[in-house]
C-alpha cells in the first residue's frame, strides 16, 4: 500500500470529551470513535479542535489510550505531538507509539518567531528521530507562522514525512500544493480548510480534516466519496450543508469561542458533555439550552 492509499480519506480532528472535573470521558470517546468508524472516517486526536494546548500530558495520554482502544485496529489513529519543546514532542511520539497510535501530527513550535531555514531544520530533526511517520501541520491562526508550500515540498522527500495538513486559507496556495502532490504516491495532502473540501477533492486532494465531522461524519464521508467519484453536483450540495452546520459555531467567533459552542452542539445529540478546558469557558445553562434547541431543530435529519 502506498502512502497515498494509506493516509487518505476523512480524518476527523476529534474534540476531547471532558467531564465537569476535566477528566477525559472514556465512554464519550468510545461513542464518538464508534460513530466515526461506522461512517468511514479516521480519528485524529490532540489537535486544535481537541484543545491540545489546554490539556496536560496525562490527559493527552488518556485520550490517545481510549481512542486506540475504541478503534481496535479498525483504522489508523493520528495523534498530535506539537509542543514548544522539541524533546517533549519526541517523548509524546514515543509514548503514543507505545499506546498504539499510527502516525503523529506536528505544527511548528511557536513561542519564538522562526524563519524558513529554522522551520526546515526542525521538521528534518523531528522526522529523523520520530518512531512514527510524521504529518506536517500548518495552522497560522494559532502558531502565527506560515510554512511555505515550496518548503513543504522540500521536506516531502524525507522518508518519514508522509504528508501535509494545511489549515491556512488561500486558493492559490491550495492549487499550488495540488499541482505538486496530486500525483505523488509517497506523499499525501490534507486540507483543514473545510469549506474548500469539495473544491480540493475534485482536483486531487487526498484527505480532508473537518472539525464538523465530529458531529456529522456521514455527510463528510458522502462528500468525499461523491467528489472522488466525479459527482461534482452532489459533492457541492453536501458542501453547502456542511458549511451551514459549521457556520453555527464558527461564524463571527474566535477559535476559543467556537469550540465551546461546538461541544454544546455535540452534547445536544448525546455525544459528549459540553465542558471545555481553561482558558476556554463552558457555555452557561441558558446558552446551552439555546444552542441545543437551535441545532436539534435545524440539523437532526443530518446527524446519524
Automatic annotation (TrEMBL):
InterPro entries: Aldolase_TIM (IPR013785), DapA-like (IPR002220), Schiff_base-form_aldolases_AS (IPR020625)
Coiled coil: none
EC number(s) recorded for this UniProt protein: 4.3.3.7
Keywords: Lyase, Schiff base
CDD domains per record: DHDPS-like
SMART domains: DHDPS
Recorded GO CC terms: cytosol
GO MF term (any one): 4-hydroxy-tetrahydrodipicolinate synthase activity
Keyword Lyase part of the UniProt annotation: yes
One Pfam family here: DHDPS
GO BP of this protein: N-acetylneuraminate catabolic process
Name of protein: 4-hydroxy-tetrahydrodipicolinate synthase
Source taxonomy: unclassified sequences, metagenomes, ecological metagenomes
